[in-house]
Each structure stands twice: as C-alpha cells, then as structure tokens.
C-alpha cells in the first residue's frame, strides 16, 4: 500500500473567486495559475461542516472538458490531505451533472459508504478547450447545488486564505480503469473508486416504463454536441430503448466539444436543427423527434419535424401530461415551479390543475429546497433546463424521456397507424387548451461589465415613474399595452425563509405581457445581458401566429426602453432563442 504525507502550502488570495449561480467559471488559463484551483477547493473544504469532510465520501467528476483530468488529480490529492476517506470518480472523469446528483443520492459503495457531496467540474454550456472555459461547483448531500449560505462562506474564505493542504506525494490515479485504489495516510486509509457512471444513470429509465413499445418514435435524432451526454446516450437510447445507432449525433465526448459551443439551442445545435428541417440548408425529409444536450447534459432542447418547442412550453406540457403519461407521477404532482424569467405557461397549467405553484430566482438550488420539503415534483427554466424530484439538478436526458413518454401515451392506440400524434400536434393541442405564451430571449454575451451594470441601474431608476415609462413606450409603439407594475424580483424561500434580492428587473403589462432584464451569472468573462420578452394570447384563433411577428412590438419596446445599443454598442444580440 502506497503511503502519502500531508503538505501545507502557503498561498495568497485571488480576486474574483465568487461562485455564480452554477459555481466558479473562468478561462482555463486562469484555473491553470499556480494555487488558483487549490485555493477554491480548500476554501470549499473549510466552508463545510467537519463531518462532511473528515472520514467522508465525495464525488469528483464532470463533463470531461479540457483541464478536467488534471483537476481531478489535484482535488483527489487535496481531499486525501483534508481527511476525506474516499473519492468516487466517473471513468475518464466523465459524469453528467444530473448523474452526479443521482450518485450522491442513490449510490452505495461496496463498504456501505454514501457520498456527502461532490465537486462537479463543468462550465455547462460554455465552450471548452485550452483557451476556453472551465468551471467547478460543489453539490451537497441532497444532490443539489450548494445554497447561498455555503457559497457565501466559500467566497469569504477565498478572500482570506493563507494555506491549503495537499498530498503531493500521492500518485496520480489511472481514471481510465474501473476499480478501487487504496492508499494510506496520516489519518488512515484513503480510497479512490473509479466506476462506470452510465450504469447508475441508466436507472432513470425506470421512470418511463412504457417506452419500449414506441418503436420508430424512439428518439430519431439525439445530439450530444460532443458533451458528456454521449456517454449515456448509447446505453439509454440504443441499448435500453432500442433506438438505432444512426440516431446518435456527436455523441463522442471531446475536451473541446469538437470546437463547437455545447449549448442546445437553435443557434449552436446547427447540425440537429438542419436535420429536423429547421435550418436554411434542410433538404431531406426530417425525422419526427429530435433532441440535444449541453456540455454536462443537464440542459435539453426538444424538436419535432420542422418544429421547435420552447423550454417554457416544454416544462408546462410535461406538467400537464405527467400524471397520465409518466408512471413515476401516477399518484399525482406535489407542485410545480419555474424560474422567474421563464414564461408563465406553467402558471396557467398549475391554476387549471389546482397545483401548488412557485416562482423562484434563476438557479436550481431554489428548486431543490422545494423538492426536499415535498412541495414540488416538476420544475423548469427557460434556459433549456427541465427536471423533477428524482434528483436535485436539471436533467436533460430525463426531459427527453418525459417527452417520449408523452408521445407514447398519445399514440398508445395508434403505434402502427399511418398518422401519429406528433410533437407539433401536442404543442398546438396544449395552446388550444391553455393559451399560448409567445416568448423569446435575446442574449448579449461578453458585454462590458460596467456598461451592463449601468444599463440595469437605469432600468431600475425608470421604475420610479411608470407614467413616464408608459409615455415613452407609446412613443415607441402605440400598440403595446401600458406597464401596470415594475420591480426588481425578490424571493423569500418558503422553506428556510432566506431572501434573494436583485434577481432581475421586471416590467409587467396590463395584458399579461412581460419584459425581464437580467445579468447572467454563467459566463466566464465580461457580462451577459439577457432580455426576456413574453406575450400571452388566450384566444385560440390567434395562437398560430408567427412568433417573431407576434413579439415584434414588445421587442422594439424592450431594446429602445433599455437603450441596449447605446449602452452596449451592440446592434444585434449574440443569440436569439
């Protein structure tokens, strides 16, 4: 047995190590600075209760992006030095964010051990590679992201840190080979358990027992965008559900995501979009169903033949059909929730079905609190995140399986027929019942941070006089309703009473329309301004309009009211979804 010793390394704080909504994200070159990653990891260990570190089991894995394998070795050596008893690592350091949550909650080691938390190495939908992005976040014992009380402690620790602990003489572990390696240190044995996480994650298929009957409807095209979802796609869609190998697209994980941007939207998932008949170069007859995942497989995009399902509609449709379509929910839903910027489509479903409903800030940890308290079963974000209470993260593959379950139910008496109920049919039926929330999001990425803050401050200042705001709006577009309320969204958690302030600027119109402006916490440089534009139409004769036409007046108001070009210098958004 290899022996190791513990070394105390002197260090000094780095500026800017404050975790955002999904951890700390910076350029790879920033993380590669001496002591940079180590400072953050030690600050995290110091922020946790002693019993969640000493003698504990932690998970260390991620989406496999560039620098992940180096980071796994560094964190493993620091875990050993800090008295952690064992580290669980996904083979080749690969484990999706939802799989990590499931492993924390469900996996039991051969010795009966259970994980108390995890370092997840991901920058989610951000690009990867030597000059691109890396990220790290900590998830707690419930499988969900660390709450603000913990991330605030982590950040505070990063500002005062003077030393970190590391077992420098601990050999690197071969994480390409499944098995347990045992070492011995000052506090006793230390194990590194490398395992195949796809075996654990395939259990999610148990939530959808009716899918084997679907035949040709099974995921005609699944695009992993060269992210970690590719490691699960073969096992779940091909081996478990019988889809053809040819249905998998870009399912080989790569450290740089094949040079692409692993964000499942109409801009970046170009190959899938073309295949599904939505691209400019689409020629062949599209398949009936397609889906995409982001880098760490927690986000999803759902497409039908020549048809895009907005994330806001997606979570509303899943909630509306869950009880009858998905066996896991056959006894009913405890409640539903959405992030504040997400459209109000879910609100209408909740009201009609008499379900508990919650509107929370952006960040999955807020959903986790509700789920732990037994108050929420299904939740979603407009940023292509959907999930349920089976874990405490959004789950991209789960969302795909949920849609396939709905398709299976809708076609249960007609699987061999000529005319199947399609994705588009399901969405249009939903609009006919609940109305349509025309919705779009404009992203302005890598904007000067100072300019972005000035833009937001001006929007807040304008809220002091709604009469002036409405006068300005009428000068821009006379066909837009008046603003009846405006605020900065603030959330008081019904479970723990914590208050989250400054969560986005809202302008609420008399006809149910909304404009929301928010600075995103998921970028690695500069700032990302997100503008959310929504108009509700309950007249079923008007739900079939082109979305761009329906939203054009509000888009005009949003850009001119915010003085977007004046503050940012941008004449167009980086991404429109």
UniProtKB/TrEMBL annotation:
GO terms for molecular function: magnesium ion binding; phosphoglucomutase activity. Residues 17-164, 222-303, 312-412 form the Alpha-D-phosphohexomutase alpha/beta/alpha domain. Its EC number is 5.4.2.2. GO terms for biological process: glucose metabolic process. Keywords: Carbohydrate metabolism, Glucose metabolism, Isomerase, Magnesium, Metal-binding, Phosphoprotein. Its cofactor is Mg(2+). Belongs to the phosphohexose mutase family. Monomer. This is phosphoglucomutase (alpha-D-glucose-1,6-bisphosphate-dependent).
